[in-house]
Automatic annotation (TrEMBL):
Topology of the protein relative to the lipid bilayer: Multi-pass membrane protein
Keyword Transferase listed: no
Keyword Cytoplasm recorded: no
One cellular-component annotation, GO: membrane
GO molecular-function terms, A-Z: allantoin:proton symporter activity; ATP binding; uracil:monoatomic cation symporter activity
Native organism: Cucumis sativus (Cucumber)
Family, as annotated: Belongs to the plant ureide permease (TC 2.A.7.19) family.
Record's subcellular location: Membrane
Transmembrane feature ranges: 6-30, 42-61, 81-98, 105-130, 142-161, 229-251, 271-295, 316-336, 342-362, 374-393
InterPro entries associated with the record: UPS_plant, Ureide_permease
Keywords, comma-separated and alphabetical: ATP-binding, Membrane, Nucleotide-binding, Transmembrane, Transmembrane helix, Transport
The name this protein goes by in its record: Ureide permease
Length: 401
């Protein structure tokens, strides 16, 4: 099997993982904003996410000769390594729950802020756990100041969301006020928010960030957010962050067996075998939950059926691509973490920098917001960049022997 041995190779894996993991959320957000049901999207995503893990295992996991201490992927499938397999599968379950939660959080909180908060929580909790599991191979005097910067980014992210929500309410209130003025000065019927919502979206070319744009978006999207409490989105986001903070430590235990659960003479799971089991459990929990959500949807999403899902080809290609991007991104993250330490590999949690780019360019997030919101957003991203740089600087090197 192929093993990443150099610090430079590990960092390269992290950089590629960062780009992939920062892009796939934008694809799922795009589909939700176009009205595709989240249950349909996540079922498609889950299929190719598992496919990516299988491709990685059958290529990188089978390269080179197998040995007693470093067996290839297929050879490990028949070994007595179930304690490690269970750790890997536990990591897959919490990751699946986290990804599923963020699909709803993106609608309520926005792509940029959701990714910053969840990634920061992942680092604050997960990186701290990985530091001790990795036998402190990362530089603590560098690592923990970076963790502190991520914690500050969480606070700034919550402030950005609150400020942006207030801006949107002010825009909608202003639209209602202007509509009332028009109705008092003309004989034409008033243009209410309800009229706009029932209008043909193709006939309305609202600019990003305007009240008209917000109303059109609410009409098209599959997850309705108007009238919902701000706390709903933040609660989902924090739950997802806690789930994300646990998957990397679980994967760490699966590949390095720090708690000595394997019998003597049984080799540790390779990163490829662990990732395969990890992805299998991620797939199973996603399929079970989303099939249930087809018939019993959450957050007032529309009901659907398995037959309707099979026949829904609108946007399916984007959902399948998102699964591949996420799968290969996770695989590269784990390959880098096995070489440089999983605490340092959590630097891929800089993915919100990529997601924010897509959020602003594709979805017009924060367009025409207040100066306060812009100041908080810039502060959040700057703090995030500082935190990521510090985290990468803490990279160590694991002894592969």
């Amino acid at each position: 099997m192929y093993v990443v041995e150099s610090k430079g190779g590990a960092i390269a894996c992290m950089v590629f993982a960062l780009m992939l993991l920062g892009t796939w959320p934008a694809l799922l957000t795009l589909l939700e904003r176009r009205g595709r049901l989240p249950q349909h999207t996540y079922l498609d995503y889950s299929i190719t996410n598992l496919l990516a893990a299988l491709i990685i295992a059958l290529t990188f996991g089978e390269i080179g000769n197998s040995s007693l201490h470093h067996p290839n992927f297929i050879q490990q499938l028949s070994q007595d390594n179930w304690p490690s397999v269970m750790f890997a599968m536990a990591g897959g379950i919490v990751l699946s729950l986290g990804n599923l939660s963020t699909q709803y959080a993106w609608a309520f909180v926005g792509l940029s802020v959701t990714e910053v908060i969840t990634s920061s929580i992942t680092v604050v909790i997960g990186t701290t756990l990985n530091y001790f599991l990795d036998d402190k191979i990362n530089k603590a005097e560098i690592l923990f100041p970076g963790v502190a910067c991520f914690l500050i980014a969480v606070c700034l992210g919550s402030a950005v969301h609150s400020s942006n929500t207030a801006d949107n309410k002010a825009k909608l209130k202003s639209l209602s006020h202007n509509t009332n003025q028009e109705s008092n000065t003309t004989d034409a019927p008033p243009r209410s928010s309800k009229d706009l919502e029932n209008a043909d979206s193709s006939s309305l070319k609202a600019k990003f960030g305007t009240a008209d744009f917000l109303i059109q978006l609410e009409k098209r999207r599959s997850i309705k957010v108007f009238g919902k409490s701000t706390l709903i989105g933040l609660s989902i986001t924090f739950f997802a962050g806690i789930c994300f903070s646990l998957f990397s430590p679980a994967f760490n235990l699966a590949t390095n067996d720090q708690w000595h659960t394997l019998n003597n003479g049984v080799p540790h799971l390779s990163v490829y075998t662990a990732f395969f089991y990890f992805s299998v459990s991620c797939f199973i929990i996603a399929i079970v939950l989303n099939v249930v959500f087809l018939y019993r949807p959450i957050l007032n999403s529309p009901k659907t059926t398995l037959k309707a899902y099979v026949n829904d080809w609108n946007g399916r290609g984007w959902a399948l691509l998102a699964g591949l991007l996420c799968g290969f991104g996770n695989g590269l993250q784990f390959m880098g973490g096995q070489a440089a330490g999983y605490a340092a590999a959590d630097a891929v949690q800089a993915l919100p920098l990529v997601s924010t780019f897509w959020g602003v360019v594709l979805f017009g997030e924060y367009r025409r917001s207040s100066k306060k919101t812009y100041a908080l957003l810039i502060s959040m991203l700057l703090m995030f960049m500082v935190a990521v740089g510090i985290l990468m600087a803490s990279s160590g090197h694991r002894n592969q022997s």
